[in-house]
Amino acid sequence: MQEQRSFSVIRGVGTLVFVASVAVPGMAQEHDDQSKPLVLPSVFQAAGPTLASIQSSVDQYRAALGAVNNGNNPGPRDSGRREINWDGGGSTATSPGSTPFTVFLNTRGANITTPGTGFVQAPREGLATTFGNLTYASIFQAFSPVRLFSPLGSNKTEVEFFQPGSGSDIPATTTGFGAVFSDVDRPNGSGPLGRIGNLLASTHIEYFDKDGDLLFVGVVPASPGDASLSFFGIVFGDARIARVKITTGDRAPGGNDTRRRDIVMMDDFLYGEPKAIQ
Are strands 42-48 and 2-3 parallel, antiparallel or unpaired? Predict the structure, then answer.
């Protein structure tokens, strides 16, 4: 369901912060460019125990990004969207990858990195083997069967956009980015969101423009119980998102998922057609 939220304004030294139960838009402190008007995006979100719990929100988000999935077709494209579902044409293999993860850089314009040691695409059983934790075979479920995606040695993932078909030669921006998550148990975690206020959030997405200024922070909705699914995505009226930073859970995967430790996996990435920065 598409939702607009009301926000409270808190002013601090060199920072404008809007606090909400779901999202925190603001401007990055390091740039402090008060000349930029604040524009709020449309927000799409859902959470629940089954695929059906989020399916309609994901479908609405797809339509908002662009009805046509451009797949691996090279850009520039006037409209449409790109998707990454980690399934490799139906593969059930466990596939580790390095950082930067450039598999989709040229084909779909997404360069994916982590401060950790790399990434893994795997079904639930592969996650259990990769992270040495047998409970992972039962506490997660995939949205698009059968593989999920996770950083290794970190709970941070960044996506930077480029024009598809250009390799990394043409930096780009997109109108929106959204992602599916598995087993988000708690909306609030154990640490603050850096320099944008005192909001505590476990799984969230930070959106940045081409200058590195923070555009928006979206807190991914939670659903109690194991193997739940959550979705969060935003759409602006123009292509202004150059990079996103995703935090999944309270810490890097490996340990048990408990009341004090939320371990989260990712599934589908969806984003508007990347447009070359003018």
Answer: antiparallel
CB neighbours of 165 closer than 8 A, spacing ≥ 6? 73, 74, 75, 106, 107
Q: How confident is the model at residue 126 (pLDDT cuts 50, 70, 90)?
A: very high
Asked whether the CA dihedral 153, 159, 162, 164 is positive or negative, the reply is positive
Instruction: Give the residue, 3 or 89, on which the prediction is more confident.
Output: 89
Residue 212 burial by CB count (10 A; 0-12/13-18/19+): exposed, middle or buried? exposed
The tokens describing 62, both together, are 């797809």
d(CA 269, CA 255): 25
Distances (CA, A) of 207 to 1, 97, 142, 240, 271: 21, 24, 24, 9, 12
Judging by DSSP bridges, how do beta strands 42-48 and 229-235 pair with one another?
antiparallel
Residue 34 has a pLDDT of: 58
Name the pTM for this structure. 0.86
Give me the residue spans of the domains in the chain: 39-276
The answer, yes or no, to whether residue 215 has pLDDT greater than 80, is: yes
Confidence band (pLDDT; 50, 70, 90) for 171? very high
What SS3 state is found at 108? helix
d(Cα 223, Cα 221) in Å, to the nearest integer? 7
pLDDT of residue 19 exceeding 80: no
Which SS3 state, helix, strand or coil, does residue 54 take?
A: helix
